[in-house]
Amino acid sequence: MKAVMYERTGPSSVLVLQDRPLISPGQGQVRVRVVVSGVNPTDWKSRAGSGTGSKLEAPKVPNQDGAGVIDELGPGVTGLSVGDRVWLWDVAWGSTEGTAQEYVVVPAAQAVALPDTESFDTGASLGIPALTAHRALTSKQNGPARLSPGSLERQVVLVTGGAGAVGHAAIQLARWAGATVITTVSGERKGELARQAGAHYVINYRTDNVPQAVSRVAPTGVDTIVDVNAPANIGTDLAVLKAGGTISIYAAAPGESLAIPIRESMAKNVQYQFVLTYTVTDQQKSAAVAAVTEALKAGALRVGNEHGLPLTRFRLEETAAAHDAVEQGFVGKILIDVSAP
Question: Which domain holds residue 324?
Answer without folding.
Answer: 2-125+309-337
